[in-house]
Amino acid sequence: MTTIEALQSKQIIAIENGDIAERDALQGQIEALRFKASRAEDFDALAGEVEKRNAHRRRAERIIEKATLQGQAIDEFIDKAKEIESALNALMPTARELVSLNNKTWEQYVTPTQLSAQNPLPQGYLPHDFKAPTLGMKGGQASAVDVGANLYKALNYARGMCLAVERVDLPVFIRPAEGFENLGDAEIPGGTDAEGGIKTAKCIVCQSEHKEAIDRWLADGETTLRQMESRTGISKASISRHAKHGAEDAGK
Length: 252
What we know:
Number of strands: 0
Structural class: mainly alpha
Strand content: under 5%
Distance between the termini: 41 Å
Largest sheet: none
């Protein structure tokens, strides 16, 4: 491959020989190479901006996907809460009845303590195996006097919680677009797909006929970016960006 340095070497010889025509012809080739290199750098810089915008789009796609799944989970949760609320609503009449029944469990005042405190009977008048029933809590850790009222309050509270939950769609914080990020409708280059999803442009390598070979070289790790550039004509920067977004896609 002819380089600018090689052409300049020839120019020096041409100048030493007084060959102005050769000097000027070589200068034309040098300027053409410089223009080509400058254009390639410009294209690489623009390709970098394209990849940056595509990275934003891929991130936006992942955010939309996660938000959709989160919304589905919230909707399912609310549906289940409504089922529970409906079941609790059907239980409320029984729960209210339980309060009244709870009062009846102690209104006769027949407990061992009460019998002992209120002029107890002499021995022999009650059956020897007689026991006074009382409503208690397992383990004897708490009084059961108000258990009916507490159950009613708990069920009513749970029903209220089920009724209170709702889906709230909050705005997402975004920063102002800067530089080339702010070009037209960045979200949908070329429109949306049939499902209304975002279309994202492919990178230069993905669009080229050398994609499979480049992917293979990247995988084996034995071929340098410079060698790939020489073989395919695709810049090292473009190949590097392709390798980066390929790793991102593999990690989704």
